[in-house]
Amino acid sequence: MAEINGRLIVGRQRELQMFNTFLQRTHPEKRLLNLYGTGGIGKSFLLDEFRQLAAERNMHVISLDSRDIVHTPSSLCQHVVQLLERLDGKHVSVSTSDQPLSTIESIGILNRAATEHRLLLAIDTYEEMGELDHWLREQLIKELDPSISIVISGRYALQGAWKLSSTWRQCTVQMPLSDLSFSDVKTYLHNLSILDEHTIYWIWNQTKGHPLTLSLTAQTSSLRELIHLQEVEVLPLITKQWLKEVSQPALRRMVEAASVLKHFNQETLAHVLEEPVTAEQFQLLTELSFVRRVKRGWLLHDLVRTAFSQELSARSPEYYATLRRKCMMYYYHRTIRSIGKNDDISPEVSDFFHYFGDELILQFFNQDTASNYFEVMDEANFADAERYIQRRYEEAQEYRIPYVDSATNQAGEFVITREQNLFNLKHVHLRELAGLGAGTVRLLRKPQGEVVGLTAVIPINGSTIDYLLNKPLSSAYFRSLPQEQLDEFVLPSETPVGYYIQTIDVSNYNDMSLLADTGHFFITLLLTGGFVAGSPPPIPFSTEIHHRLGCEMSPVVHYDYDQVTPTHTFTTDTRGHKLQAYLRKMMLKLGMSEFIENEPDAEPPFVPLTDIQRKISDLLMQGMTNAEIAKQLFLSEITIKKHLTAIFQKLEVRNRTQAVQKLILSRKGAV
């Protein structure tokens, strides 16, 4: 797909007409449009056109990309309200307290805005929403005013409960995108003054009408040379040729660096390249057809980024490794600087994760091979989870997972026997786990919908501690803890201290995309989950991964997998400032000591208490009870308890006495 002469779009007239009909809402129940198709098919470009068409109808368009937000209801709501404020040009998120807006308040703001303007909510890259999909479907969209039109764009059609529920099917317009026809390709090339029939047929045969590949091929000046080459995959060839044709070395270096970065801006490029990047140079980069603007900077299209990075790593492996190390250091220091300053540092941690792990971890968990998606288990897909477990027992087999040890350059393999292959599922009881909270069990699906993996991650809080104390796998570890640490875990269900990993299971250990997806899930949990514990099967593959990721091994053992083999529990604690110590340990394991040797030792970070939390802290230090504080501040005792829980978490303490002691010390500093 291409944009010619401003708004003339080739090959998408049917989709534009469908969108215009959708906006008219001649069928009021059709409030959701699902735009989907493979990478490079033109979803984001068409979504931009949809936004413009909606704006021409005087609609307020609230547009977000899943890559720009932390995947929690509160973060999404806050982001949406901020976007609405920019559209309205006024502050609408006035709250009666110092606490962030609740999801209910945010939805109320959107619904009130819908009475003044027609609203379109457009969500891009939906395949990366993960467990937030469940909340969006079961709460957000159901509670939004029916007049608000919604577009969900992603690589895959909405699955699971979206597809099984007749209600959702009736209110959804499906818009699959496919490659362009030969006639469309010919029209597009004619508009670019490519008229030679032989050239047109060659481009058609090579690109098959794939919009991104077509665009890059048509813009390559060496078409005559390429026509004589016999290449199976044209995109790597085109990107390689494109780099050769770039007349400005600075632009070529910026593209190479951008292909290593997750996303970029002028500052990050200058840091990684260790040379100034002028505004004019950066503008040239951002004007390239495969560069997109997102909330946190710019990024190359996924397919192009992969092609460029693979070409660079093959051509200049040492330079590529150097760029990755510079990126790692940049995001490491940015993450460290954010600890204690921001309530939510998930974006910084996510950036750092892109470069996380040694070569063995990167072999198994290479994000570029991740291509599947997670969904929360609920009643709509419960039977799918049962069938997955049944199929796993029927088809279990031995696996040999090859790897290369970079230290010795020797090849090896991890062996998982048929019996060990089923260890992950031995203590999985779906109904029991489902009762521990929404999102405890997730299914991993292929783009076609096949379930190929399952995870069970239990939040550690007052509602689940009895389960963890009395069930196989977890009981040995939790029963070994002192009472004061158990008391620390007994928090309200909405504020878990951390998570216990019951299982992370895949159907095929030789499918690298499954390892990449579950590895991404596991490492993200380690970095953002707080206190994370788990007792993986006692097999070399699992234990080696945990050791390589810096997990601490508890001396307590159990025999719950086969009644014979002693099995340890591994833990990682990244709550508050402990995240810095964990990241520092990982950097040392990765041989980055020279970059952090002058870094100061960990010190208690700045604790950003809100105004109301400061007032409560002042009264707490005066020795007041919850009831006295509530009376003094004209609040309920329940509200005071919630604020105290948040204060204890920020101070990393377990009780009032410890909080007062730390507040006295910290008042001399930065709290």
A few lines on this structure:
It comes from Paenibacillus violae. InterPro entries: AAA_16 (IPR041664), P-loop_NTPase (IPR027417), Sig_transdc_resp-reg_C-effctor (IPR016032), Tscrpt_reg_LuxR_C (IPR000792), WH-like_DNA-bd_sf (IPR036388). This protein has 671 residues and is an alpha/beta fold.
Descriptive labels:
671 residues; alpha/beta; 7-stranded mixed beta sheet; 5-stranded parallel beta sheet; disordered N terminus
- Sheet-strand content, in percent, reads 5-15%
Please describe the biggest sheet, giving its number of strands, its sense, and whether it closes into a barrel. 7 strands, mixed
Low-confidence stretches: 1-7, 93-98
Number of beta-strand segments: 18
Rg calc: 27 Å
Average residue pLDDT:
84
Total DSSP helices? 33
Please give the share of residues in helix.
40-55%
- Report the span from N to C terminus: 54 Å
Strand line-up in the sheet with most strands: 10-13-14-15-16-18-17
Structural class of the helix and strand makeup? alpha/beta
Morphology call: globular
Could you characterize what this model shows?
The chain is of the alpha/beta class and 671 residues long. 49% of the residues lie in helices and 15% in strands. It is built from 33 helices and 18 strands. The strands form five sheets. The protein has a seven-stranded mixed β-sheet with strand order 10-13-14-15-16-18-17, with helices on both faces. It has a five-stranded parallel β-sheet with strand order 4-5-6-3-7. The longest helix has 22 residues, at 317-338. Keywords: DNA-binding, Transcription, Transcription regulation. InterPro entries: AAA_16 (IPR041664), P-loop_NTPase (IPR027417), Sig_transdc_resp-reg_C-effctor (IPR016032), Tscrpt_reg_LuxR_C (IPR000792), WH-like_DNA-bd_sf (IPR036388). Residues 602-667 form the HTH luxR-type domain. Pfam families: AAA_16, GerE.
